[in-house]
Every structure is written in C-alpha cells, then in structure tokens.
C-alpha cells in the first residue's frame, strides 16, 4: 500500500472531469488550478497521504502540524459539470514515487467514473517574454482540433525532455485506461511563480469548460505587479554593446 485516502465526504458525481493542479515549473499549474477551484467554490472531500511524499509535517499558524499530503476537491460548473481537482503543495519525492502516487490517484478517479483528465503545468523556456503561449499535449490526435479552437498551441515533439511528474504520469495513465486526457502547459521562464502564465491557462480552461466568468481579480493584480517589475528590470538593464562584426548562428 503506497497511499492512504481519507474521505471527509463522498460527493455523488456524474461523469466528472479531473483537473490536476500541483506545483511545478513556475507553479503555473498550481496557481491556475487553485484559482479556478476557488472561483467555482470547490469543497475538499478527500486527503491523500503517501509514503512517496517528503517525510515531514508542516506546522500551521497555531503550531499544529499537518502531514504532507495532496487533497481532492469537488466543484460543479454553472452548467452542472462535476469537476475533481487534485491540489496540494507536494509531488512524489522520486520518479518511482511520482508514478506510484499517480497510480493511486488514478484508482480513485476510476472509482468515480472520471471521463476526462486535464493536467496543468509550466512550459519552461528560461527566458522572460511578454507574449506567452499555452502549449498542449494529448492522449489522442482527435483532441487537438477542439483545443486549438480554445487557444492551445501544439509544438511538434515538444517539450523534448517530456512532461514529467504528475502532469505527465496522469495523462499517460488516462491514455492507458481509455480516458481522453490532455496537458495544458503555460509558457514561463520558470524563474518565479508566474501569475501571468497562469492567467493564460485559465483563459483556455474557461473556453474548454464553457465558463462565462472566473474570479481572477487577485491573480490579475499579481500579474500587473509582475509586469511592472519586469519593465523596471528591462529599463535598468545595460544596453547591448556594439560589435564591429556581425556573427550568425546557423
């Protein structure tokens, strides 16, 4: 046994969709998923403890400790679509642990009859850019057309290093179990918690879930501050030195 799932309730759901929102590159997936879950009024219904999480407890403001865990939350969209969110501050400590943990989560999803799996993450470029894309990867090619209409960009063969962690393992297991699955990756430098990229991912999710409104006020304010800091950094940067000869990279 790798995981212990403690239910605080067992909501009745019909063909729910699943959204993974755990920490990763630029924390894009976690920020976007948490914002969407809060906007939809999601409620926690299960806590997942695993030997594959770091062996630690975290004291809260009252110095009461809580074990490292993930949480499952349930929400309904205005149209009545059931959504299960996977939220938390941790992923598996090792590659093997990430796989076993994803397998344990998949067992829960199968029990609830999940009909679609959406994982969220960051697409790290190492560069700060003003125009940020949302890149995608799918479990079957037929899913691409709908996602492209929602604003997702598909970059052939990328990311070359693969999609690691829960975001990759869960869509892979979804594919194995015949469940339509895809990953949305917000383009980010990866150097900081990227609220700008998270907003782009939320914009795509709104279209996919047919949501008229998502409360992104706080996130938009963070993104605005981030834009201001980036502009200040650009203004303080030294101008490039002129070179006598041109060089080319083929």
Main β-sheet: number of strands, strand sense, barrel status?
8 strands, mixed
What ranges have pLDDT less than 50 throughout 5 or more consecutive residues?
A: 244-250
- How many domains? The number is 1
Report strand order across the widest sheet.
Answer: 1-3-6-7-2-8-10-9
Average pLDDT works out at 91
Radius of gyration (Å): 19 Å
CATH topology: Rossmann fold
Which architecture name does CATH use? 3-Layer(aba) Sandwich
By CATH, the superfamily comes out as PAC-like subunit
Q: Count of DSSP E strands?
A: 10
Classify the beta-strand content into a percent band. 15-25%
Helical proportion, percent range: 25-40%
Question: In brief, what are we looking at here?
Answer:
The chain has 250 residues and is an alpha/beta fold. The chain has a single domain (3-236), classed as PAC-like subunit (Rossmann fold), CATH 3.40.50.
Structure description:
With 250 residues, the chain is of the alpha/beta class. The protein has one domain (3-236): Rossmann fold (3-Layer(aba) Sandwich), CATH 3.40.50.10900. The protein is built from 6 helices and 10 strands. The strands form 2 sheets. An 8-stranded mixed beta sheet has the order 1-3-6-7-2-8-10-9, with helices on both faces. A two-stranded antiparallel sheet has the order 4-5. A hairpin with a 5-residue loop joins strand 6 (70-76) and strand 7 (82-88). The longest helix has 20 residues, at 217-236. The chain is globular and about 50 Å long. The termini are far apart. 38% of the residues are buried.
